[in-house]
Amino acid sequence: MATPAPAQTLDLSARFPGVLNPDTRPGYSGWILDNANLLKFATALRDELGYDYLSSITAVDYLPEGKMEVVYHVFKTTGGAGVVFKIQVPRADPMEVPSLVSIYPGAELQEREAWDLFGIKFTGHPDLRRILMWEGFAGHPMRKDWHEPYFEEEAKPLKSRWPDGRMIMAESKNLFGDNIAYPDGFNPESQTFDPEKALYEALRTYQKDEVGLDTDHIIVNMGPQHPSTHGVFRVAVVLDGEKIVNLKPVMGYLHRNHEKIGERNTFIMNMPYTDRLDYLSSMSNNFGYALAVEKLMNVKPTERAEYIRVMMAEMTRIASHLMAIGALLNDLGAYFTPMLYALEERELLLDIFEAVSGSRMMCNYFRFGGVARDLPEGTLQKIKGLFFERLPRKIEEIDRFLSENEIIRSRGIGQGVLTAEDAIKYSAAGPLLRASGIPYDVRRAEPYSIYDRFEFDVVVRTNGDIYDRLMVRFDEIRQSIRIVQQAVKQLPNGPVMALKPMYQVRVPPGEAYGRVEGPKGELGFYVISNGKPTPWRYHVRAPSFINLTAFGPICIGLKVADVVAVLGSIDIVLGEVDR
Amino acid sequence: MSDMVGKGILKSLSVSLKRFAETYLDDLSWLGKRYRTDKGIAHRGSKDARGIFTVQYPEEKIPVPEEFRFVPFLVYDEGPNGEKTLRCTSCGICAKVCPPQCIWIVRSTDPATGRPIPDPAKFTIDADICMNCGLCAEFCPFDAIKMDHDYELASFTRNVYDETKLSKSAKYYESIRPINARREDAARAAKAASRTGQGE
The CATH number of B70-199 is which of 3.30.70.3270, 3.30.1490.20, 3.40.50.300, 3.30.420.240? Predict the structure, then answer.
């Protein structure tokens, strides 16, 4: 079982004497430091020790202890285990922590999220606004003392369901009949608050072009109802003529506070909820969450289960990349023909998911210590037929179909460039990072499960433009096919569950960060258990969300029509962005 | 890089043309049996599928695999005189493991002693809240709640199902999940046998 390696953390305390205190709580690891030392420490960590990739920032509300903690996970793009460090602040407003945006610009959206959901003020953050909730929202919903309108109990299972479960519909309990809680004395008539003000003010913070004609700049809102945004996503752009001078993504339209739900759920209940994050790659989401909880429980899945997991995760990657390729080509104007060519193959993969897990998209297939059930009869045959005969041929066909097309090439090559330095800086992950020339893949950088047993190449392209992001996905599909082919051949017999199936698992106290290379990038689950049936903290490092940090910088200088193509090439899924 | 402008586009068109032709060639080779026949539907979802692959729902339906899961139902056993006994003992595990908490159970009590008896007085599932995860069926120790195959639930009102609507016979369960049903029956029989063996 992969446990956090303490070896590399030892020399850290010698390197920074008096700055770092080891986190000695049972089951925890990493370092605790002070507000005053944070920026100095982070700079040294990045510049001198080479931890250049900020993976995750999140907060934890320790309500009983009266403190709030900010947790940072930092890695090297050359691979290996990461460094975890934490800042603790007393739990009284204002809770101030220095912003890391100046050192790791990839912190921008994540710090905004921590401010929005926990109310931690990141001093020095260039644009600290709410991100998932709307401006004017009352309270910070991830705090443990914040309760939603239909609040019943802190943790499931709810006592009203059994043994005297008389059904009532939650909406009938609310005075207004819908899911909104109004502050005391709220009067909509006297409301003059403008929720958009902060956004438009933030948009005006661009560098003005001093030379040339003095032109007016206009703000254009693309979305939230716009087909090219792949869901309900809004892009606010400032235009100088046709040129974009500033761009801010606006999100949260699909926000349901997944993490709060996750902290009310028991550990096993979260499994089907993870399906609904990035709903195009539910098996990968299951994988990440299962890894995190297995780390806490110190359980190792059985051999056969490991192979099945890898097969499913790689099939998910192919399905998700096919969707990404189809949608990107759609955005580039090849209206729906390539999309349907890609969907045809994806359907065949979903057929396998359906036969194995019972559902095409919401698979809910992984369990702690294995998978829910063995492969049904005939499925392996189907997988073999698909992966040895059909898919390799069909991928080449889709590649041949449009990769040499003049329109795709002229709209893709050299457009929407993200340089290697910027990709690391903005914590870009997955195909977005690898298309910019950084061969960073969690499957290789810090192998989990049994990925060290397979032969595959970490796909990398060097131009960092839209076309390379498209091509990286084709190459990754080819590598995934290779992995599945190997896994099918090596698949051992045996049980698929290491534990007895339990409807309530016992998870010892501690923290764990489980990360997998999902189709969209590094997908991490940060889970804290305090020994109770529900996790104390459940955080998702959502790759589509964090990849959007680079979205604005990529787009500045391009035309509006290119925004659509850039967004398509980043490949977001709003279920995961908004959580 | 293509040397001639337009070569890439011609290449794209040739792929499209090939697929267009394949649709008609495949139609011809099936002699009209490609549509609305079980074999034809299976062919369009197989690795050898080529040409158009759409299945014309609702005229054609893709058969669902055994593990397919949709809103749960309660299994009852039929006695020799046609009496129906629910397998459910109202132990509440399904209600406790349900992620969106859409299962509501009222446990029966003996009117004389006030003690709980293993039989649900009321069993309600709010199918509109159900997320079809299948955890209830997975963890039920009595094989009493199972996931259904019927996915056509559209209705004009909210889908709140009570025990009458939820009850389906063990025969129906066997018909939709033969392999699972056989395995579970064998396991239950073995368990019962070992219990009587211990009792003696």
Answer: 3.30.70.3270
